[in-house]
Design a protein that fits this description.
Helix content is 44%, strand content 15%. The protein contains 8 helices and 7 strands; from the N terminus they run E-H-E-H-E-H-E-H-E-H-E-H-H-E-H. A 7-stranded parallel beta sheet has the order 3-2-1-4-5-6-7, with helices on both faces. Helix 1 crosses helix 7 (224-235) and helix 3 packs parallel to helix 4 (107-134). Strand 1 (12-16), helix 1 and strand 2 form a beta-alpha-beta unit. By secondary structure, it is α/β, with parallel strands linked by helices. The chain is globular, with a radius of gyration of 17 Å. It has helices at 21-31, 44-54, 70-83, 107-134, 161-182, 206-215, 224-235, 253-256, and strands at 12-16, 36-41, 60-64, 89-92, 142-147, 186-193, 246-249. It has a single domain (4-251), classed as NAD(P)-binding Rossmann-like Domain (Rossmann fold), CATH 3.40.50. It binds NADP nicotinamide-adenine-dinucleotide phosphate. Residues 16-17, 19-23, 41-43, 46, 66-68, 93-96, 116, 147, 149, 193, 195-196, 198-201 line the site of NADP nicotinamide-adenine-dinucleotide phosphate. NADP nicotinamide-adenine-dinucleotide phosphate binds at residues 16-17, 19-23, 41-43, 46, 66-68, 93-96, 116, 147, 149, 193, 195-196, 198-201.
Length: 257
């Protein structure tokens, strides 16, 4: 039985960075629940092969764009708009790390982190506002879901100056988009994950493992179903009245600090 409250069938989603890690988890969660899911990454071959894999669960279409470049953001939006008139769920998930200590950060690494983590989500929304407007249904807003980080909510025990600032900025941008677009029936919320096992965070590494044991009350890293649950909640009727918040998805890490 499908529970109407959490039903997302028939919607269209775009997940940036859906070619890997948390984005792949989100894409699998949406595609398997009847959402036509577009995934985007920088490499056409990789995107096509990941989309093939996800297509075993549900409809998944690969798109390409380097989000570090405004042209790449525009190209991705144009490729989406060529295929779809309406967008119900935009997941700004792609993210970048870099050398980020006071000693090692450079202009290039700083800019790249800000470009991918803050500028691209904003510009993608700018480009796709017409499709998001077309995705608004009575009693069911179009959704923007930004993937922030607990790194934007606290200062970790390692140096991540630009990354932390970029994620705090993304959480703030989420609120300003919620205010601007809410009146048009488009909500914006952020999810701030703690450690999830991806190519960005090796949760099997000794230091991360210790960190998880020490700081996370649930004593485990995040898993696929954890992020899928929050995205499905936010994307379905159940989450229709949630607007402008950042949800820590961290097993209690932030609460216990
Ligand atoms: N993993 C964690 O523990 C954790 C914790 C908190 C927050 N997050 C956030 O969660 C999001 C996903 O991270 P992840 O851990 O899943 O990382 P990941 O495994 O490294 O995946 C990042 C994705 O972003 C895409 N990407 C990176 N740079 C891009 C660019 N310039 N243009 C277009 N796409 C780009 C990559 O796609 P291609 O390689 O195909 O281009 C890749 O699929 C990020 O925003 C990250 O900051 C992760």
């Amino acid at each position: 039985m499908t529970d109407e409250l959490f039903d997302v069938t028939g919607k269209v989603a775009l997940v940036t960075g859906g070619t890997g890690g948390i984005g792949g988890m989100i894409a699998r969660g949406l595609a398997s629940r009847g959402v036509r899911t577009y995934i985007a990454g920088r490499d056409a071959q990789k995107a096509a092969s990941v989309a093939d894999e996800i297509s075993k669960l549900g409809e998944c279409i690969p798109l390409v764009g380097d989000l570090a470049e405004p042209e790449g953001v525009a190209a991705l939006a144009a490729a989406f708009a060529e295929r779809e008139d309406a967008l119900h769920i935009l997941v700004n998930n792609a993210g970048a790390l870099g050398p980020d200590s006071l000693a090692e950060s450079t202009t290039d690494s700083w800019d790249r982190i800000m470009e991918v983590n803050v500028r691209a989500p904003f510009q993608l929304v700018q480009h796709l506002v017409p499709q998001l407007r077309a995705g608004v249904r009575p009693d069911d807003p179009a959704r923007i879901i930004n993937i922030g980080s607990i790194g934007g909510l606290h200062i970790p025990n390692w140096e991540a100056h630009a990354y932390g600032a970029s994620k705090a900025a993304l959480h703030h941008l989420t609120r300003s988009l919620a205010k601007k677009l809410g009146r048009e029936g488009i909500t914006a919320n952020a999810i701030a994950p703690g450690p999830f096992p991806t190519s960005m965070t090796d949760t099997a590494a000794e230091t991360v493992r210790k960190n998880v044991q020490t700081y996370i009350p649930l004593e485990r890293a995040g898993e696929e179903k954890d992020v899928q649950g929050v995205v499905v909640f936010l994307s379905s009727r159940a989450g229709a009245y949630i607007n402008g918040i950042t949800i820590p998805l961290d097993g209690g890490y932030m609460a216990a600090l």
